[in-house]
């Protein structure tokens, strides 16, 4: 089953702005989330009532899952894994000691079943619109040197995506990194891909990046796959580059456990009407000052939702980001320790996989009865008040529990930042060698590896 089935619309159509947040919610944050077209959250921290409140003004919500790594802190999932769910190389599990996580075998039917159950319990049951699949890029990073295993893992991911579509319908599905896997395998089944470290200063001067922009634009044209970008430097410039590329951009100044408040301001839900209120014509009148600000709708928050959102993100965060994150393209990586494993793990040396992962095909898929995706995309603002009383549920956690979860979240964010820094260096080197390697390896003729 394709990602669209009988429908032709991408769930991400119309999304002009978004934010990634893996920390714990409160009423202030939930209210601010309603200003965004899309938010990506750690579903473990949310109740169904809170999700409904976020969506009450049309905001779409994606829930995080990791598909190619499992961290030991996630004891619930770890306890359910069978030997064939871990990827093994030369008879040994691939363990990332710095993150204390293990590479998984997405070709294992049993592991696919565990992930499908996670989607059922944490996404579908809570009314979340879809999933953000982290660590997909591990497939390209870890298995590039073994075409047989590479194909096996990609086929396993495709089988997982097909089953998710069959069970849960047209839910939104976005993968993090894995550009090569997108082109070769997953484009017909996903709605979007995330490109972190999309910083204008490096993207503009890097031939690999310029070529990848064109590739992703082509994939979007053919398969309707939207690209979500994230920068940590040069907010305004990165926003403009993303907008010119027809990408959806977010500037992250801090780790994803910190909510960046007030970046966008959504107008009333009836705002789409004022949009064509002919702002351009007014520029010709004596009110030139006002039109000047409104004409470049992408630069003002007074514009309707689609236009006002993006720029506001640039301006509000430009100062803090430049000061807080002058280092590398690190903290963009989404994943706090409290939530789930970090994204791509290119930190591990790329060993030549000599042995495909052991699969446990005897395991059956989860028996949880699929429920249709919750479609609580109400357009009224009224439901917000009724839901307030339901916020008490998460507050029932003890102060000690909250402190422990916050500490875990910060550890994950730090892990992902450091991991992503190494990943960028690794991929930069790989990009430089592509010109030479492509003449020797057929794979390089078609795709660049991430």
Task: Tell me what the structure shows.
The radius of gyration is 22 Å and the shape is globular. Helix 4 (109-124) packs parallel to helix 6 and helix 10 (235-244) packs across helix 13 (305-324). It contains 17 helices and 13 strands. The strands form three sheets. It has an eight-stranded parallel β-sheet with strand order 1-2-3-9-10-11-12-13. The model is unreliable at 270-395 and 422-450 (pLDDT under 50). Strand 12, helix 10 (235-244) and strand 13 form a beta-alpha-beta unit. The chain has 450 residues and is α/β, with parallel strands linked by helices. The longest helix is centred in the C-terminal third of the chain and has 39 residues, at 399-437. 41% of the residues lie in helices and 11% in strands.
Q: Catalogue the unreliable spans.
A: 270-395, 422-450
Number of helical elements: 17
Q: How helical, in percent, are the residues?
A: 40-55%
Shape: globular
Amino- and carboxy-terminal Cα gap = 27 Å
Q: Please outline the major beta sheet.
A: 8 strands, parallel
Pairing-aware structural class of the strands and helices? Answer: alpha/beta
The total count of strands amounts to 13
Radius of gyration: 22 Å
Order of helices and strands: EHEHEEHEEEEHEHHEHEHHEHEHHHHHHH
Average pLDDT level: 73
Biggest sheet strand order reads: 1-2-3-9-10-11-12-13
Strand content range: 5-15%
Helix and strand topology:
Elements: E1 18-21, H1 27-33, E2 38-41, H2 48-55, E3 60-66, E4 69-71, H3 75-78, E5 88-89, E6 92-93, E7 95-96, E8 101-103, H4 109-124, E9 130-134, H5 138-143, H6 147-168, E10 172-176, H7 179-186, E11 192-195, H8 200-203, H9 207-223, E12 226-231, H10 235-244, E13 248-251, H11 279-282, H12 289-294, H13 305-324, H14 384-388, H15 392-395, H16 399-437, H17 442-446
Helix pairs in contact: 4-6, 10-13
């Amino acid at each position: 089953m394709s990602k669209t089935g009988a429908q032709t619309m991408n769930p991400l159509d119309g999304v002009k702005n978004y934010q990634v947040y893996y920390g714990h919610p409160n009423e202030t944050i939930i209210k601010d989330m309603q200003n965004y077209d899309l938010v990506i959250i750690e579903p473990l921290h949310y109740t169904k009532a809170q999700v409904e409140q976020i969506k009450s003004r049309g905001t779409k919500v994606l829930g995080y899952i990791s598909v190619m790594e499992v961290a030991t802190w996630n004891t619930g999932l770890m306890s359910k894994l069978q030997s064939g769910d871990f990827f093994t190389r030369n008879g040994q599990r691939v363990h990332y000691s710095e993150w204390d996580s293990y590479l998984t075998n997405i070709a294992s039917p049993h592991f696919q079943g565990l992930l499908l159950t996670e989607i059922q319990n944490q996404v579908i049951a809570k009314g979340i619109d879809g999933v953000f699949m982290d660590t997909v890029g591990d497939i390209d990073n870890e298995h590039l040197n073994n075409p047989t295993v590479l194909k096996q893992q990609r086929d396993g991911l495709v089988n997982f995506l097909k089953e998710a579509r069959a069970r849960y319908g047209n839910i939104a599905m976005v993968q993090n990194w894995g550009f090569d896997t997108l082109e070769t395998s997953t484009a017909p089944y996903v709605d979007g891909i995330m490109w972190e470290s999309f910083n204008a200063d490096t993207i503009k001067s890097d031939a690999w990046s310029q070529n990848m922009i064109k590739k992703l634009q082509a994939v979007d044209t053919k398969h309707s796959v939207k690209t979500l970008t994230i920068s940590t430097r040069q907010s305004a410039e990165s926003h403009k580059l993303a907008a010119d590329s027809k990408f959806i951009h977010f500037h992250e100044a801090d780790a994803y456990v910190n909510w960046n408040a007030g970046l966008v301001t959504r107008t009333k839900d009836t705002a789409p009407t004022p949009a064509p209120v002919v702002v351009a014509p007014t520029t010709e009148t004596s009110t030139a000052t006002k039109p000047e600000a409104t004409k470049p709708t992408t630069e003002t928050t007074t514009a309707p939702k689609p236009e006002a959102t993006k720029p506001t993100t640039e301006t509000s965060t430009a100062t803090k980001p430049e000061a807080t994150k002058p280092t590398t393209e690190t903290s963009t990586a989404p994943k706090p320790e409290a939530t789930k494993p970090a994204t791509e793990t290119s930190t591990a040396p790329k060993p030549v996989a000599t042995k495909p992962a052991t699969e446990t095909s005897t395991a059956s898929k989860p028996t949880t009865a699929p429920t249709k995706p919750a479609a609580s995309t109400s357009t009224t603002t009224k439901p917000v008040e009724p839901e307030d009383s339901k916020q008490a549920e998460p507050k029932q956690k003890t102060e000690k529990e909250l402190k422990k979860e916050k500490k875990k979240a910060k550890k994950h964010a730090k892990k992902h930042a450091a991991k992503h820094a190494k990943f960028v260096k690794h991929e930069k080197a790989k990009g430089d060698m592509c010109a030479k390697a492509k003449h020797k390896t057929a794979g390089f003729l078609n795709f660049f590896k991430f």
